[in-house]
# Entry
Amino acid sequence: MRLIGMVLLAALVAGCYDERSPSDPAPEPSLDAQLRASIGPWGVVPIGPMRAEPQALVNLGAALFSETALSGNRDVACATCHDPLAHGTDALSLPIGTGGVGSGLGRTLGAGRRFVPRNAPSMLNQGLTFLYMFWDGRLNEEGAPGPGPRRGTAGVPIPASVTNLLVAQAMLPVLNRDEMRGRAGDRDVFGAPNELAAFDDSAATAIWSATMRRLLAVQAYVAKFDAAFPGVPASSLGFEHAATAIAAFERQSFTRTNSPFDRYLAHDDRALTDQQKRGGILFFGKLPCASCHSGPMMGGVQFANIGVPQLGPGVGKGAPLDFGRGEEIPENPFYRFAFRVPPLRNVELTAPYMHDGAYPTLEAVVRHYSNADSALRNYDVTQVHPSLRTSYHGDAPTINAIRANIDPRLQRPLNISPSEQQDLVAFLKSLTDPSAR
Ligand code: HEC
Ligand code: HEC
# Structure
């Protein structure tokens, strides 16, 4: 009542004493009015809770997620690179797979091994069903005759019963030699021959079966599979069952969607600070951020080359460079050096950033956007771990090839002032669900 009274009084006073000429600018709308108007067009909506997964399935998935027997040399688990205690990341710019020693920031390459070529994405919110998985989007449902992944798994024979991308994804790391499988002739950490690495790269089905044989040789797993898949005899269990459990665990444990920004979207004006609101107005309004980081996930549906410096051993035919989506779709020059626009919820917790971990902080990311071209040309490689610096591709032909193809929205400097940069970082931190900390 009191508030309405004051508004009425203010209107009366304004009515009596307003002597502005018609050409005077209208008073600036409130931060909330500006922010809500600028969010409007971008399809960003609160996400809300997910349905609970069957507990026995989650229990099995949790065990498998930390199970080193999934790796050929019995030394690496999903959790090595997606540590549940580190927000589902490894905190490294580029991961260190089988043969590596130590964990987290202290992890070092094994003799004769190489870095995994791309940054390990956080597991936070992977269960929200993205259209495209991986930095190059190679796992997706494009071209699928019915629901389910078909295209872009490099000919990997994902069983037809697998219709969910997150389940399909969980079948892939065990095939990857750098991440989990190892090289022919490797011996595992107990000195036994690595039978998974002996298979040819094309023998995915045989590798999955052999991995299941390892698991089902352990009585505790026989019991866990039986509880998770009651009525399915052990002889009918395939690695897709393991992958189904891993995906259930990922959905259950890593879905974190109750950020201050989500509460703001649900109409709580007090959920954000004024600085976060100013950052949001920049993100959704004055700057082009939301035109790429759009939709309910604030990313995940488009690809762009934003001029990120290239680091690491490279991927596929482009090696030692990483063409990103361009490796998948070489016929279209738009995609050269383009990567999937990352979803941004909880981004505060998932440093380092970009497909190769080139930037250690959100401040460094936002500085990049102020002038992408100059940031690319003047990249300071001392931002990454010394062991990676020699694999920085700062030669003029590479820099020029990336520059030639930077997304039109970022070709000219955005010139984001230092105080605007702080506002943007504050806004990005409003995307953190406190329970994910
Ligand atoms: C040696 C490190 C390593 C291990 C071990 C590993 N991953 Fe990953 N993971 C990565 C990297 C790197 C990527 C991104 C690869 C790319 O985009 O090309 C990734 C991508 C993913 C993604 C997709 C993320 C996205 O944003 O599209 C999921 C989900 C995932 N991993 C789950 C798993 C599971 C489940 C396991 C165990 C079965 C596992 N990972 C084992 C490094 C690892
Ligand atoms: C032209 C599309 C585009 C625009 C505009 C854009 N982004 Fe991005 N953003 C991307 C892509 C693509 C990546 C990943 C690039 C890579 O790894 O090479 C990215 C990465 C990021 C990351 C790192 C996320 C992670 O998990 O590594 C943040 C944070 C980010 N953008 C915030 C912003 C902000 C803030 C703005 C506005 C100033 C903005 N973006 C504008 C496409 C865009």
The two ends are 39 Å apart (CA to CA). The pocket of heme C (ligand 1) is lined by residues 70, 76, 78, 80-82, 95, 97, 116, 118, 120-121, 126, 133-136, 169-170, 173-174, 179-180, 246 (CB under 6 Å). The CA atoms of residues 97 and 179 lie 4 Å apart.
